[in-house]
Amino acid sequence: MRVYVPLTLSGLAAAHGAGEVGPGPLTAYAVTPGLREWYVSDDIEELEYAALNRAAAASLRVIAARPEEIRRRVVVALDVPDGAAVADPDHGLEASSLGEVRIADAVPLAKAAAVHVDADDAEKDVAAAAAALGAADLGDDDAQFTVDGADDHELLWFGIQEIPGLIG
What backbone torsions phi and psi does residue 166 show, to the nearest 5 degrees? Predict the structure, then answer.
């Protein structure tokens, strides 16, 4: 099963140093029944893209909570055994947790299929989105527009062998 783990650049550096994404439990995003129902698609690529975007939004929340973080969203795509990622049935259709799964243990970085990271030119918009996130959560439409501006930047795809260049 493919899962998408939200990180930051410092989190990616820590994972690279440890050789694993963890420690567990990990929050990740995947194609869950709730995400399928919400997205209304049978196209697995579209559904995985939706899960990736959910993880990117979670990465933004981590960035917003840590002023010292570089303002670039990071998502690691990991392949885990079926059953290793468990959705909380009590939160299945809640908008804030669509696609969210828990992984009990750390996952070797060797199980990563790819790393998705914002380009350098996204930092300004990601910084603005992180600053506006609290107001957007409270219903401020202008702040939500700013948060949505981060989504205008597609995360770039990198192979795991490229991690040293990303964190260096």
Answer: -75, -35
Instruction: Locate 32 and state its tokens.
Output: 């869950």
As a whole number of angstroms, the distance between CA 70 and CA 94 comes to 30
In this structure, what token pair is assigned to residue 151? Answer: 């989504």
Provide mean pLDDT across the span 36-47: 86
Those residues whose C-beta lies under 8 Å from the C-beta of residue 159, and which sit 6 or more positions away, are: 114, 115
16's tokens = 């690279």
- Least Cα distance to 117 among 31, 13, 29, 19 occurs for 13
Task: Find tokens 């993880």 and name the residue.
Answer: 55
pTM of the model: 0.92
Distance of CA 3 to CAs 11, 54, 102, 154, Å? 17, 11, 10, 18
How far is residue 23's CA from residue 43's CA, in Å, rounded to a whole number?
32
Mean pLDDT of 59-69: 96
Q: What is the CA radius of gyration of the chain?
A: 15
**Of the candidates 156, 157, 137, the residue with the CA atom closest to the CA atom of residue 147:** 137
| Structure token pair of residue 17 | 């140093």
